[in-house]
Batch of 4 targets.
Target 1
Amino acid sequence: FNDTATTEIYTLSLHDALPICIAEEMPNIGEVRGKGLMIGVEFVEPGSKNPDSPTTGKVMEEAKSQGLLIGKGGIHGNVLRIAPPLSITSEEADEGLEKLHNAMQRAIED
């Protein structure tokens, strides 16, 4: 069971955590945006606003190897699409965020 208030808390948690915990330490992230549980993470070449599609693809594959399924979109294919189910729990949100963070670190190291 997951009511609207609980979903709102997890949404705020994901929206706050991505920019604060991850985006600030990742020079490849240009913007984190979204509405509700649908979140987009835009990848750009460090120091510019040029789309970074290769890194986006690497992050997506690294996430997949950890069991985290996310999509890719945007005009240039440089935006991760994160859309967890409405029934997501706080623990699942934290686990997904950790896997996403690990995937980003591995992709940028390559």
Target 2
Amino acid sequence: VDMSAPESDNHNIFNNIETIRDHSHIAAEKLETWKELIQGSGFRISKVMTSIEEYTIEKWLSPVKQDSPEGEELEKYLRETPGELLLKANIDRETGTIIKERFVMIAEKP
């Protein structure tokens, strides 16, 4: 079980905003990258289930306050990043929403 970065996010926007919000965040890999890692380690994937969750930016940011240093840095990042790149990372500046993708993968060692 893990969060995954959007497949269309080729500029690492999703991981950048996660790191601004939570400095302990390392990386959310794309689902295809996870599949390659698991299969490359000799496992056979028997099932993958995905889900999406839509949040307002404010709710996603919680428990970090919008007027905190992290909240202000995130607001600046979202304002300065081109909208088309944000959309590829499932972030819509116009509606103030973010979509997070999660997955559950079941794999077996043959």
Target 3
Amino acid sequence: YTRQEYGLDALAAARAGLLHDLFLYDWHSHRPEPGEGLHGFTHPRRALENAEQEFELNDLEREIILHHMWPLTITPPRHRESYIVLWQDKLCSLRETFCLPNPFAAKTET
């Protein structure tokens, strides 16, 4: 199946997928300022602000970046592309957290 058959905007999904974590700090060691909130709840907005300073984004790209942490962001995504980025992000973080192998990594010869 191709993206055209599903009516998806692959370019917007790819751009937002690359920019969705553009928060420019190490969240492992970052100490929030008073009233700043926890990283999981606040970094989508910060990533969007940083991305908009460097790139011209369309509405779909903005929506993907803002809602990629759902359900922490409370408002669910409205577009299928958002769910694709959201679930891929969750799969990657699970792999990182539990040190699971990446099935798409290039195999190295020993």
Target 4
Amino acid sequence: SNAYYPLPPASWPDLDVTGHEDWTAFIETATPARLFFATTKSERPHWEFRFTPGDYLVFGNESGGLPPSFYEAHKDNLYTIPMPGEHARSHNLASAVAVIAHEALRQFTMA
């Protein structure tokens, strides 16, 4: 199943959080111009994506990754955080978000 779990209401005053019932509701409501998908099933390093303000970063859950249908539907926007060696495991979700968000912000400030 491609279960989608909306975010709970945030208690952070400086964070604007919006939950959606499912992926379709997110697409219809947010109308993202571009989506970036983080996955271990890509060869393209995340720094090759040219981030622009308004891009949406999409991460799967820690145990299963992205829904299987996303790999074909969004194949042009799949990126990875390169890991050393063939036996290296992937980063946990929080670390992956931090690495990719940092790269996006770095590109914004260096542009």
